[in-house]
């Protein structure tokens, strides 16, 4: 029988928790550390699957909440799973839907507050779209206002219908506005019991759905900025039979590396760890250095569609007037399709003219930039030059003209 997931470690970085490895799924392998582009609705906006593969993406992450609402996860199941549906033959991750259920329900921010404990005016019950209890979350669709309910079991059923290689346990996304007592309650009454329920349902579905490739399940560590809670959550989940672990929840950027280290020091060394939602270069280096193996983020594509392109000297907006008559490649050190074939002046023109091709070419460049950066990090861990590579890259990037 095909295994849902195997993980082999190849190199460990002396003086840090960083490592290289190979994560193998029924749809292929991922060399880690690896950046996983986000194809929210079974597509990375503006790109074909072939373009995504050509820029070096080893896998994508799709969103259970959005695919449940449209076209519905049952449609993907009838299509033969998300791989067949989107014509992608490499590994796919699917999140649990918990982040979107809660964040879209109360304000469109990562630092959401389910109980109106933010420093802003709390949403009224009429305004809110999500209500949480110890069994699950009831929410209204942001598309049409229809009412739905996610429980750990329902989240797993949806993710199995989607058919991703790597799924995530349903958890409560707390915020930095929640106090310590609420964080404790959330772990003990929701996130940890929900992890147990997710694993039970996931195991049942893998057995029941033997006509599909087996799927892996990652438990999600929570605990906000509190070291004791992060370590407790890691120990609790690390003692369970998960295939890997998601490093999730709200945390402050300033100590992201330290928080990742708290979790990775407690989690089983022989299982992969996925950092949920990072993409800025300093965060990438910090998380990998402290033990993250894979990570995802929508940011490279999103900022690209707004004209902001990555360079070794920082992020630059190609809509600026200086590029109007610049007939050189945007980045002559980049090997992406965009930089190899088009000039800065052409990119500038596309954005100023609101041409759809602007989104495609900018997304190709930004996704390739991050993929290539992580490829370099992986090579530097293998040959022991990580710290020099990190210093040189970040010195150049943050000394530039980031806009």
What does the model show?
By secondary structure, the protein is α/β, with parallel strands linked by helices. It folds into 2 domains: 6-297, Queuine tRNA-ribosyltransferase-like (TIM Barrel, Alpha-Beta Barrel); 305-398, no CATH class. Helix content is 41%, strand content 17%. The strands form 4 sheets. It has an 8-stranded parallel sheet with strand order 4-14-13-12-11-10-6-5. A 3-stranded antiparallel sheet has the order 1-2-3. Helix 13 crosses helix 14 (356-383) and helix 14 (356-383) runs antiparallel to helix 15 (386-398). The protein starts with 5 loop residues before the first strand and ends in a 5-residue tail after the last helix. Residues 106-126 have low confidence and may be disordered.
* CATH architect. name of the largest domain: Alpha-Beta Barrel
Give a quick account of the main beta sheet: strands, pairing sense, barrel closure.
8 strands, parallel
Task: Tally the structural domains.
Answer: 2
Derived from helix and strand composition plus strand pairing, the structural class reads alpha/beta
> Could you name the CATH topology of the largest domain?
TIM Barrel
Oligomer: single chain
Distance between the termini: 51 Å
Query: What is the number of E strands?
Result: 16
Helix content: 40-55%
Cross-sheet strand order for the largest sheet: 4-14-13-12-11-10-6-5
Quick structural gist:
The longest helix is centred in the middle third of the chain and has 29 residues, at 180-208. The chain has helices at residues 49-54, 64-69, 73-78, 82-86, 98-106, 152-162, 180-208, 227-238, 256-266, 281-289, 299-305, 337-341, 344-352, 356-383, 386-398, and strands spanning 6-12, 19-25, 28-32, 34-37, 60-62, 92-94, 130-132, 137-140, 147-150, 166-168, 216-221, 244-247, 273-276, 294-297, 308-311, 314-317. By secondary structure, the protein is an alpha/beta fold.
